[in-house]
Amino acid sequence: MKKRIGVLLSGRGSNFEALAESVAAGRIPNAEIALVVSNRENAPGIEKARARGIEARVIPSKGLEREVYDKLVVAALREKSVDLVCLAGYMRLLSPYFVKTFPNRILNIHPSLLPAFPGLEPQRQALEHGAKFSGCTVHFVDENLDAGPIILQAVVPIEDRDTPETLAERILREEHRIYSEAVKLVLEGRCRIEGRRVLVAR
Questions:
Q1: For residue 117, what is the domain's CATH number?
Q2: Which of 82, 141, 163, 185 could serve as 6's disulfide partner, Cβ 3.0–4.6 Å?
Q3: Can you give the pLDDT at residue 61?
Q4: What pLDDT sits at residue 195?
Q5: H or E element that contains 66
């Protein structure tokens, strides 16, 4: 029985594409992407999913309270018997209801070395702070912004000539690599949470 992944996105869907490629190539074995959901009708990631033959739905969030909206998304994920939820550029904070429905079964990727530079524009934050290294983090999702237990991180050195755009481009390559690796570890049951630490069985 294949493990079923649900992907939530709001934009171009590059991390979704990386996950889809990894599933297709067997780097995430015994898995399938069962559903892609976007809160934005014009999200390019939706068309990319449909082009791959993956079911994709737009559930507009405008004007809805967070929990009301999340109940609609959760219902769609449950309908497809999703085992793991992956946020891929999903620009909404999940409600406690959503998090409780999928305990330790929601992952996010963030383009900084958390807990440094959470939230929006982390590459710009890193440059303005004068950091020498940035990178990306895959973490379990809780009710707080970019705050759940960390599964994997990758370090990207910051160069003197970097702009937020050039740094983001280099970080994105690492995002694509470690997100697939983290999804594989979680689906294989190799991650155990102790306090705030995620212990990975090798």
A1: 3.40.50.170
A2: 82
A3: 94
A4: 93
A5: helix 66-79
Q: Is the pTM of this model over 0.90?
A: yes
* Count of Cβ atoms closer than 10 Å to residue 187 Cβ: 20
Q: Which range of residues forms the domain containing residue 135?
A: 108-202
pLDDT on residue 40:
95
What are the pLDDT digits (tens) for 21-64?
Answer: 999 999 999 999 999 999 999 999 999 999 999 999 999 999 99
Residue with tokens 């690599």: 177
> Catalytic annotation on 139?
no
Q: What is the mean pLDDT of the chain?
A: 97
- Same domain for 1 and 79, yes or no, is yes
Q: Are residues 89 and 8 in the same domain?
A: yes
Give the containing element (helix H, strand E) for 39: none
The candidate with the shortest Cα–Cα distance to 123, out of 156, 79, 77, 167, is 167
Out of 110, 129, 139, 176, pick the active-site residue: 110
Total of domains in the chain: 2
For residue 159, count CB atoms less than 10 angstroms from its CB and return exposed for 0-12, middle for 13-18, buried for 19 or more: exposed
Domain boundary among 80, 103, 126: 103
Q: Is 122 left (phi over 0), alpha (psi -120 to 50) or beta?
A: alpha
